[in-house]
Amino acid sequence: MKNALFVTGTDTGVGKTVVTGLLLKFFSEKGLRTITQKWVQTGSCGVSEDILEHMKFIDCGENLMKLHGEDMAPYTFKVPVSPHLAAEIDGKKIVSEKIKRSFLKLREEFDVVIAEGSGGLMVPINEKETIIDVAETLGLPVVIVAENRLGAINQTLLTCEALKRRKISVAGIIFNRLSEEGESKMFEDNILTIGNLSGEKILGELRFNNNREYLYQNFLPIGEKLLAGLRVKSR
Ligand SMILES: Nc1ncnc2c1ncn2[C@@H]1O[C@H](COP(=O)(O)OP(=O)(O)O)[C@@H](O)[C@H]1O
Ligand SMILES: [Mg+2]
Fold first, then answer.
1. Residues 91-127: pLDDT tens digits?
2. Going by C-beta distance under 8 Å and a sequence separation of 6 or more, which residues neighbour residue 24?
């Protein structure tokens, strides 16, 4: 059974890479041949930093990169700015067809492909297209990573609204805590309010922790809830 997911975020730096790595480990441990993709990496020389991060979550990462590196990261640019500008600075142009070809090649070979976006959904890749256009043409269900903080309700509902407008299916929302701030009613209320107003499935919340194994244990029920909705068969 072939499956694919697109991981977007409410913003840049909200935890898309960490969640993509956790999804990679989760599906791999279910016995599914899983790979990740970073459509456009900016701020990296040659090798995609996000792909390197994803690979830290599994044992055979180096091998995957050796065999499929180019399709895993079809575009990498040096300057850490929006993809359309990073490409322009490097004298290049991002062609969505190339991203799609790489994606389809990976999907052919793997059970699950998890693609990470750049920034949020409305980030331009060239003068005509944004990241959401690529996700739409590939027909990928979307996992939304929302940083749980002040402002999360607005950013997450806007993300949901953009997906709804294009009839793109949402596999669920994962909240992420990016600080060690103590408990406050706001964190809990953000989740409840976003669930109520968006009508989308809330998959759970990742706590702040720098340890990958801790994060993975925290992620397990989130992964199971996602899997139940996807009806992916483990081997
Ligand atoms: N739950 C978490 N606990 C601690 N640090 C986190 C957590 N989630 C993300 N981070 C850290 O926050 C930073 C941004 O996360 P990242 O996954 O790279 O975001 P994005 O891919 O959306 O830009 C990284 O340094 C990452 O290691
Ligand atoms: Mg990232």
1. 999 999 999 999 999 999 999 999 999 999 999 999 9
2. 34, 35, 36, 54, 55, 57, 58, 114
CATH (domain of 80): 3.40.50.300
The reply to whether 234 falls in a domain is no
Q: With respect to residue 38, please indicate whether it lies within any of the assigned structural domains.
A: yes
Ligand 1 pocket test, candidate residues 10, 16, 18, 116, most atoms within 8 A of CB: 18
Fill in the DSSP letter of residue 208. P
User: Which-ligand-closest: CA of 21?
Assistant: 1
In a domain, 106, yes or no: yes
- Structural domains in the chain (count): 1
Q: Residue 18 Cα, ligand 1 centroid: separation in angstroms? A: 6
Rounded distance between C-alpha atoms, residue 218 and residue 31, angstroms: 20
Ligand 2 centroid distance, CA of 44 (Å): 11
pLDDT, tens digit (0-9, with 9 covering 90-100), for 32-48: 999 999 999 999 988 99
Domain that holds residue 219: 3-229
Of 6, 8, 17, 37, the one to substitute when testing ligand 1's pocket (max ligand atoms within 8 A of C-beta) is: 17
